[in-house]
Amino acid sequence: ETGVTQSPTHLIKTRGQQVTLRCSSQSGHNTVSWYQQALGQGPQFIFQYYREEENGRGNFPPRFSGLQFPNYSSELNVNALELDDSALYLCASSLGLAGAFNEQFFGPGTRLTVL
Amino acid sequence: GDSVTQMEGPVTLSEEAFLTINCTYTATGYPSLFWYVQYPGEGLQLLLKATKADDKGSNKGFEATYRKETTSFHLEKGSVQVSDSAVYFCAPSSGAGSYQLTFGKGTKLSVIP
């Protein structure tokens, strides 16, 4: 069974650019959540996708957007990058809506640096 | 919204010492409570969870009890090992349908031989 994978591992962009991060969920999982983890902080919830629809969003501006595909893989897009967007971006998948009985499994993350 | 207050680190302990990492939370409704661990160079892993008041989650010698009256979920281990060195995150899970995790800032634990 393959775990959650993310690509790329590292990425360097400049202010104003756009970036796309990718996540492959664990086999059979239909829910993907994205988190942003700034250096020295805990992860912050960006949004969640369930069966290709956005299902909950944290306190992030609209320039953070996402997609989930029929195979349940997912993309996180960030437009007009700002310096504060530099962080580790984590993807987590679960079988069904994440909750007490549906554990979220995390990928290794994508380290984004904005210069 | 939900919030978590977690014991500030870093915490340095000698091997076989007793560990407590305090965690208190505010959340809407009746959250489930989780502890996640992040080992050096690895992703987040679920350590233990509790879904209702007075439940005790346990795993790998770690324990935490869901205390609704004090809104706390303190992590404990009776005898830590060097291999327990990691960053520990407390996280309630709530939200209308999306069950998003709200993480604390994390507590870095270093265990020395």
Q: Can you put this structure into words, describing what you see?
A:
The complex is a heterodimer of chains A (115) and B (113). Chain A is an all-beta fold. Chain A contains no helices and 11 strands. The model of chain A has no long low-confidence stretch (mean pLDDT 92). In chain B, strand 5 and strand 6 (44-50) form a beta hairpin. Chain B is globular and about 45 Å long. Chain A binds chain B through residues 4, 33, 35, 40-45, 48, 55-56, 58-59, 90, 92, 97-104, 106-109, and chain B through 1, 4, 6, 32, 36, 42-46, 49, 51, 89, 91, 93, 95-106.
Short description, anyone?
Chain A has 115 residues and is mainly beta.
Question: Strand tally of chain B, please?
Answer: 12
* Total count of strands of chain A: 11
Shape of chain A: globular
Structural class of chain A: mainly beta
Helix/strand order of chain B: EEEEEEEEEEEE
Q: Using only CA atoms, what is the Rg of chain B? A: 14 Å
Q: How large is the share of residues in beta strands of chain B?
A: over 45%
Query: Roughly what percent helix of chain A?
Result: under 10%
In which range does the helix fraction of chain B lie?
Answer: under 10%
Mean pLDDT of chain B: 91
Biggest sheet of chain B, in brief?
A: 6 strands, mixed
Give the quaternary arrangement of the chains.
heterodimer
Shape of chain B: globular
Supply the helix-strand structural class of chain B.
mainly beta
Mean pLDDT of chain A: 92
| Biggest interface, residues from each chain | A-B, 28 and 27 residues
What is the helix tally of chain A? 0
Total helical segments of chain B: 0
Tell me the layout of helices and strands.
The complex is a heterodimer of chains A (115) and B (113).
Chain A: E1 5-7, E2 10-13, E3 19-24, E4 31-37, E5 44-50, E6 53-57, E7 64-68, E8 74-78, E9 87-94, E10 105-106, E11 110-114
Chain B: E1 3-6, E2 11-14, E3 19-21, E4 23-26, E5 32-38, E6 44-50, E7 56-59, E8 62-65, E9 75-77, E10 86-94, E11 100-101, E12 107-112
Parallel strand pairs in B: 2-12
Antiparallel strand pairs in B: 1-4, 3-9, 5-6, 5-10, 7-8, 8-9, 10-11, 10-12
